[in-house]
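Lab notebook, design round three. We kept the backbone fixed and only want residue identities now. Task for the bench partner: fill in a sequence for the structure below.
Input structure tokens:
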């Protein structure tokens, strides 16, 4: 059997499905069941594994098809089933007609062999068949510092891209630089006012301008370079000069901060460059050609109501300037047509919820398959920490645990917490792990004090410790003469203890968990799986002595330790989290 890119769970499910279909064919041919077209059925892992390793509802969903009760159909399947050449040794009828399937020893030995053979590659599959996926995430406006939402979106998008890559997709990570449009005009006006206030404190600063200290900083930097050179030029020339200086600085700062966060993009896509190439005009022309635009009050409108939208949207204002909506349509046309991605996945904040349907109908209006655009909506982050009294003592709740309080301001700056503030307070490993511990569409409570703890209560520390513990075990055993030499030849059939079996079973889930995380756009499956794997290892090691009197069993258990080490390391690598060998 080829163990490269081996996915035990998927293969086992396929075997169950084939066993059932073959058995039904036999039962129909020998007259046990009447001729019929089989309806689709489910093969799944049951909640309680005492009821079997896999279970199917085939008998119940085909009750009407065979005009028989489910238990009779299940009995016919069991009487005609042949397990030869499969991982399974038996099956049983349960309840109203479920069929439960039980794995034999070969499955569990094969899983360990697959991990030991694939090593750093274990978990990778060809599920995606090389399809081109674009994952665009963060894409913060370059007009100010990145915030907590960007911190969550960065970790979420990066790990989503990685699980898709491990699942066999050709993945491009992308950042859209919003370097054109209203926000850049507002950025320029804000900089211009702050620059002029250096020379005239009474120079007006509109309430709608960006209020952050970063605007003052850039204006002062510009003044240090140019002095009062731009005081007596036109407002437009002054504004353009300030933007030309500050915008590249802000964009580079975003690149630096995201790199510190261990996020590397394949593409930094400039909205302004897209506009300069005329791509926005081309997209609008395509919409017009397809009959989805009209003119009114001097503006050009998108006819969204023709596709079920509640209202139409402006594409080009009466002043001739195209809107952000028009640019967004052109940007996605570029992804799906010009660059030919099979799927464009955008990670947006939940406040963009209303924009999703508009963008999908716009893809339809362009003549594209709207299903090629998927949007992951991400909910807000609430940062909490230990509540303290006026003397700095931690306040405990009724259960004796630290009471939590929301943190809104940075200790260092007294301002709203930014990505850089967070990374100054929290280890990057913890930030990346914690931001992916909940599904994207759920609110996330980030416990600042828990994230910096170095004990088993901190989940990322708990997983990293499991890896470091295995490394320590291997070093200690090597000193005692039990090495990993020829570990691939260990007699893995000796691994029959329930704790060994459960650890191997958890190892077997890894490839299918990675695929599931990618299919559901839910990276939270990875930290959850990593915690489960670490927990199973700790249980195994507590219950089973690796070095004992039986040399063959010791070698088999050592092989299981090595396999688990690879799997935990791969989980951490997918999340781009440090893989420690000592702690």
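Proposed sequence:
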């Amino acid at each position: 059997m080829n163990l490269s890119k081996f996915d035990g769970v998927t293969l086992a499910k396929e075997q169950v499905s084939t066993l059932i279909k073959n058995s039904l064919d036999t039962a129909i041919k020998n007259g046990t069941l009447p001729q019929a077209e089989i309806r689709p059925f489910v093969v799944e892992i049951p909640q309680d594994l005492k009821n079997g390793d896999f279970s199917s509802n085939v008998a119940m969903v085909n009750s009407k098809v065979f005009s028989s009760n489910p238990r009779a159909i299940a009995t016919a399947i069991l009487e005609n089933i042949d397990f030869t050449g499969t991982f399974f040794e038996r099956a049983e009828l349960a309840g109203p007609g479920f069929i439960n399937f039980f794995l034999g020893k070969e499955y569990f030995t094969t899983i360990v062999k697959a991990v030991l053979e694939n090593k750093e590659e274990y978990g990778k599959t060809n599920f995606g068949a090389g399809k081109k996926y674009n994952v665009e995430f963060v894409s913060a406006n370059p007009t100010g510092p990145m915030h907590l939402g960007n911190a969550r979106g960065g970790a979420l998008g990066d790990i989503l891209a990685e699980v898709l890559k491990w699942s066999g997709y050709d993945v491009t990570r992308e950042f859209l630089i919003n370097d054109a449009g209203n926000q850049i005009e507002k950025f320029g006006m804000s900089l211009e006012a702050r620059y002029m206030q250096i020379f005239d404190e009474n120079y007006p600063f509109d309430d709608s301008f960006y209020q952050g200290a970063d605007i003052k900083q850039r204006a002062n930097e510009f003044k240090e370079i140019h002095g009062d050179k731009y005081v007596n030029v036109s407002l437009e020339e002054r504004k353009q000069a300030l933007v030309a200086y500050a915008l590249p600085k802000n964009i580079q700062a975003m690149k630096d901060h995201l790199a510190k966060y261990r996020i590397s993009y394949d593409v930094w896509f400039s909205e302004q460059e897209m506009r300069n190439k005329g791509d926005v005009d081309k997209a609008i022309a395509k919409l017009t050609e397809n009959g989805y635009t009209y003119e009114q009050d001097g503006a050009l409108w998108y006819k969204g109501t023709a596709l079920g939208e509640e209202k139409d949207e402006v594409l080009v204002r009466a002043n001739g300037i195209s809107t952000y909506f028009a640019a967004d349509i052109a940007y996605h046309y570029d992804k799906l047509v010009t660059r030919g991605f099979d799927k464009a996945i955008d990670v947006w904040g939940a406040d963009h919820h209303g924009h999703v349907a508009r963008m999908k109908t716009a893809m339809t209006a362009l003549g594209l398959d709207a299903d090629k655009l998927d949007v992951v909506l991400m909910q807000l982050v609430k940062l909490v920490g230990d509540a303290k009294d006026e003397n700095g003592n931690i306040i405990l709740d009724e259960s004796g645990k630290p009471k939590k309080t929301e943190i809104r301001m940075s200790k260092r700056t007294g301002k709203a917490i930014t990505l850089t503030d967070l990374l100054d307070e929290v280890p990057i490993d913890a930030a990346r792990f914690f931001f992916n511990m909940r599904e994207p569409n759920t609110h996330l409570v980030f416990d600042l004090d828990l994230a910096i703890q170095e004990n088993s209560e901190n989940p990322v520390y708990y997983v990293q410790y499991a890896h470091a513990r295995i490394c320590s075990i291997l070093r200690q055993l090597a000193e005692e003469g039990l090495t990993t030499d020829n570990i691939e030849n260990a007699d893995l059939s000796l691994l029959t203890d329930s704790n060994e079996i459960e650890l191997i079973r958890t190892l077997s889930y890894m490839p299918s968990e990675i695929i599931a995380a990618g299919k559901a756009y839910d990276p939270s499956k990875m930290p959850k799986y990593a915690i489960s794997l670490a927990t199973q290892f700790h249980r195994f090691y507590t219950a089973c002595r690796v070095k004992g009197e039986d040399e063959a069993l010791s070698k088999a258990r050592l092989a299981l330790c090595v396999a688990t080490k690879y799997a935990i390391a791969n989980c951490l690598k997918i999340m781009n989290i440090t893989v420690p060998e000592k702690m």
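Keep this in mind before ordering anything: The mean pLDDT is 95.
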